[in-house]
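Hi C.,

You asked whether I'd gotten around to modeling the 273-residue construct. I have! Everything is below, sequence then structure, no commentary in between.
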Amino acid sequence: MWPKGSRAGSWIQRGADSSGFLLLKTLSSLGDFAFFCRSFLQWTFRRPFRLGPFFHQLEFIGIRSLPVILLTSAFTGMVFSLQVGETFRLFHAESLVGATVGLSLAKEIAPVFTSLMVVARAGSAMAAEIGTMQVTEQVEALSSMAVNPIHYLVVPRVLAAMLMVPCLTAVYGFVGVTGAYFVSVHLLGIPEIAFTRRLTYYLDADDFIGGLLKSAVFGFVLALVCCYRGYRTTGGAEGVGRSTTQAVVVASVCVLVLDYFLTALIINFLPEF
């Protein structure tokens, strides 16, 4: 037992106080996020349906994200096929490169990488935009005009992300396989017929469905987290930057953590996927 008032005892006391404060702050944030999710669910199907903001978010999240998706997917498929091809060459199994790349892209790489790219490009913009509106009191102005901010700002963004992230995932997978085909056939010398036959034999529609389901969940979570961080912004311009950083970090971590649990769920309870 450290003597009362000693330096070591004060350090331990401060550590216990900071740990308790951090725990309470974390629990408070989780509770606040739960109430935010409840508000979102309450306002999702209420009229009026704001089609204008919804279609604008479809264009912002989907169409404007295509360049970065096309670029990253092409080089992901190319470098993955290059690594897999060189490894399989040791076992004389080069014909399996197409199937390996296709299955990996459809089930894991395309949903996760697409979601991370959307977080970096669109999710950060959501948090910054809503955070700026919050610190400049534009959100309060919406409430004063009898417009619910969650209905007007959050619902269109989350629904658009749930729809567009799976679409971008499908594009990511197709372009990634195309890049893998180019490297495998034209650079590694793998016969074209071996690449395509193994790819079509092992890759089923269920593999795509599982990846698209995961990407829809990722889109919902990342948009909701980014909107929440922006909606709870305080502290002016510095607060906007802090909220944007937190939104990107937390949403990216949520995508990676959820990927494990969704994969385990699909493998154990939905074996057809």
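If it helps when you're writing up: The chain is about 85% helix and 0% strand.

Thanks,
B.
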